[in-house]
Design brief:
Helix 1 crosses helix 8, helix 13 (255-274) runs antiparallel to helix 14 and helix 18 packs antiparallel against helix 19. The radius of gyration is 24 Å and the shape is elongated. The protein is 63% helix and 4% strand. The longest helix has 20 residues, at 255-274. A hairpin with a 4-residue loop joins strand 3 (98-100) and strand 4 (105-109). The protein has helices at residues 2-12, 24-27, 36-54, 62-75, 80-85, 119-134, 137-144, 147-158, 166-173, 178-195, 201-209, 229-242, 255-274, 278-288, 295-311, 313-325, 336-340, 342-357, 364-377, 380-393, 400-409, 415-420, and strands at residues 58-59, 87-91, 98-100, 105-109. The chain contains 22 helices and 4 strands. With 421 residues, it is mainly alpha-helical.
Length: 421
């Protein structure tokens, strides 16, 4: 789907020349008179932000907002005017990405949190994006890709107004030159050191990105753009080596960062499950399994992954094939693999759901899922037992009509076929 959306936007995009623009500190002065193109670009960025807000893509999370604010002010402690201009928002997206707009808005995708180990690495990303704003890279990108905004709005209408087209639009607007990327990398390191963060975090983020399944095929991420990862790592290593040798202490894992990381990674796992990305869901779940206070909830998610693979073997096959090959033509994919593993995945789902339903605390939704699994398998009596237990345990869940319909369906011997359809 993302490939189709990106194609629509690219077809509608065009380029226009850009004039020389003033540095941000000059542009923030009261008597500054902006270029007409600059006024247009900032207005478009404001409009895009309002659109993302209206479509529910910007997450309102007090803990994340407070964390962003802390990091921003540490990085820009000597530049209060710029700090006031920069606004950082959490975007409801499972992709490991970030974006900066010419109006000073920076988006941190929720999908970044699973691969971040500490606040220092988050600061490295935020510092990198702030540098794009301060150096006016974002402004030049919007002026040069003027029709990207128009393309995104048109494509949104063409795809039902779900707003998904704005993610590839943001990725397109965050595509910078090799020199601009290196400038942002190096400026981020300077700010990290001045703020007392570990500057090596800027390099660690690159390495963490490679742990995402299929990362080598993702050309839309800030950490896969040109110059290549290895070139950018080499430049950063050289920059760090020529600076005064001061040992960097290991960063503390702040409770504020850990709380946001766990909350947002769990949200990302749910997004992956919604999109039938089971390998990605499992990978990100493993990253925080030891930090979730409720291990019964971990078991519930593992059940969701296995049940999802059993019900949607085609989607599971396509995901695995793309991760392995990077190809979106799935004609050569081995669809028999997950078909043949269907019963095994169902058994694993039952195991995990049982641990979740009988764990401490009990995961009530796991009871309903067990009813659905047994119904899917054709074990009607066991399905009825678990569905009734669910209704008795959660009488105010609000889905009584649906659950009762499943109980009635349990009398049908062709249940599995009906659920598959």
């Amino acid at each position: 789907m993302c490939g189709v959306l990106a194609s629509i936007i690219l077809l509608l995009c065009g380029c226009t020349s850009t004039k020389s623009v003033a540095p941000l500190n000059v542009a923030l002065e009261e008597d500054y008179i902006p270029l007409q193109e600059e006024v247009w670009a900032i207005a478009q960025a404001d409009s895009l932000h309002e659109t993302l807000l209206s479509k529910g893509m910007v997450v309102k999370d007090e803990q994340a907002d407070a964390l962003f604010l802390t990091v921003k002010h540490r990085l820009l402690k000597d530049q209060p005017q710029i700090a006031e201009h920069i606004r950082i928002y959490l975007l409801r997206s499972p992709d490991a990405n970030a974006a900066a707009l010419p109006n000073g808005i920076i988006y941190i995708h929720a999908g970044l949190f699973p691969i971040l180990d500490n606040e220092d690495q988050l600061a490295a990303i935020i510092g990198h994006e702030i540098a794009h704003v301060v150096d006016r890279h974002s402004l030049r990108a919007v002026i040069n890709q003027k029709n990207t905004f128009i393309g995104a709005h048109v494509a949104d209408l063409m795809t039902g107004g779900l707003g998904l087209v704005y993610f590839p639009a943001l990725a397109s607007l965050s595509s910078f030159s090799r020199e601009q990327e290196e400038e942002a990398d190096m400026q981020a390191v300077i700010w990290l050191q001045a703020a007392g963060y570990q500057p090596e975090a800027a390099i660690e983020v690159f390495r963490n990105f490679t742990t995402i399944p299929g990362a080598q095929h993702n050309q839309a991420s800030i950490y896969s753009s040109h110059p290549s990862q290895q070139q950018r790592i080499a430049s950063l290593e050289q920059q760090l080596s020529v600076k005064e040798a001061t040992p960097s202490p290991s960063p503390d894992l702040s409770p504020e960062f850990l709380a946001v990381r766990v909350t947002q990674t769990e949200a990302v796992v749910e997004m992956h499950l919604r999109d039938h990305r089971y390998i990605l869901a499992e990978t990100d779940l493993d990253r925080i399994a030891g930090n979730l206070p409720q291990q019964s909830r971990v078991e519930y998610y593992r059940g969701e992954i296995d049940f999802g693979r059993a019900r949607n073997p085609g989607d599971a096959t396509r995901e695995a094939y793309w991760i392995q090959s990077g190809k979106t033509n799935f004609s050569s994919a081995n669809y028999e693999l997950f078909e043949n593993q269907k019963d095994q995945n169902l058994q694993q789902a039952v195991l995990h759901y049982n641990l979740a339903a009988n764990g401490e605390p009990q995961q009530v939704n796991a009871m309903k899922r067990l009813g659905e699994v047994y119904l899917y398998q054709g074990d009607n009596q066991e399905a009825v037992n678990w569905l009734r237990r669910y209704l008795n345990t959660a009488p105010d869940a609000g889905d009584e009509r649906y659950v009762n319909s499943l109980i009635k369906k349990a009398q049908n011997t062709n249940t599995r076929k009906e659920i598959e359809s």
